[in-house]
Amino acid sequence: MHVFITGGTGLVGTAVVAELLGNGHTVLALARSAASAKAAEAAGATTLRGSLTDLDVVRAGAARAEGVIHLAFSNDFSSAQAVARSVAEETAALTALGEELIGSDRPLVTVSGTPWVPGAVSTEADPLPTDGPVGGRGRTVDAILALASQGVRSSSVRLPRTVHNNGDGGFAGLLTQIARGTGVSGYPGDGTQRWPAVHALDAAVLFRLALETAPAGTAWHAVADEGDTVRDIATVIGRRLGLPVEQLPEESFGPLGAIFATDQPSSSAHTQQALGWKPVHPSLLEDLENLRP
C-alpha cells in the first residue's frame, strides 16, 4: 500500500515509517522542513514539503495515497493558548484529510490519547473526553470515525500518556525535561496516580495493523503497561539523573498539571485479542534506565 503519513519524523512517526517500509508498504511523508525531508528520505520514504497548516498540500498527499496515517501534532504545551492553537491546526488538517477520502473506502488512521475513567481502567469502548485542555482532539477524532458512514475506513489508535524509546517521550519525557530544568524530579498529587505507557516500536506495529485490517469506525488501544505510578516514574528519573524526588504543586507542570495529577490507567485487552497485537519491547520503567545524567 502507498501510505501518506503526517508526523513521520517524530518519535512515533519514525517508528511507524520503519514498520511500514519493513512490511512491504511505500511511504509519502509530509515534511515541513529541509531537515525533516532529509530524515524521512534517509529512512526510505519519499516526501511532500508542507506543514499541517498547508491544507492544499495535505489534501494532495491524501489524494496520491492508498491509505493515510495522521500523527503530526505540534506538542507545544507551554500555555493553554498554545495547546488550543495546536488542537485547532490538527482539526483543520484532519478535516481536510477526511474530506479527501470520502467515498474511497481507503483507510485513514488517526491518533488520540487513551481516555480516563474515574475509578476504573479505561477500555476501547470508553468515549474520548471532549472537554478540558485537549478536548478538541476528542471531538475531531469522533468526527473522523463518523466518516465510516461516508466511505472512509477510518480508525483511531489511542496512545497512552507515555510513548517511549530509549528513555524519552510522552509524559515521562516531560517529567524528565522539567527535572533537568528545575533540579528536582517532581510529581503532582500524591504520586499514586497511574499512567499507561507503550514503547514506540510496539505502537508502530499497531498503527500498521490498523491501516491494514481495522474495520471502519473503530478505536484501538496501544497500551503495553496499564499503569505505572507517577511516583515510581519520578523515582527512576531522579535516580538516573542524580536528583531528589519530591511532590510538587500541579501548577509546577503548566497547563497539563491537572491531567498529570489524574489517575488514568488503561487496558488494551480487546485490541490484543481482536488485532493480534502483542507488545514485546521494554516497559517504561525498564526503558527509563536508559536515561543519562
TrEMBL record:
- Under what name is this protein listed? 3-beta hydroxysteroid dehydrogenase
| Lineage of origin | Bacteria, Bacillati, Actinomycetota, Actinomycetes, Micromonosporales
Q: Which organism is it from?
A: Actinoplanes cyaneus
* GO molecular-function terms, A-Z: aldehyde dehydrogenase (NAD+) activity
InterPro entries membership: Epimerase_deHydtase (IPR001509), NAD(P)-bd_dom_sf (IPR036291), NAD(P)-dependent_oxidoreduct (IPR051783)
Record's GO cellular component terms: cytoplasm
Residue ranges of domain NAD-dependent epimerase/dehydratase in the record: 3-215
Q: Which superkingdom, per the lineage?
A: Bacteria
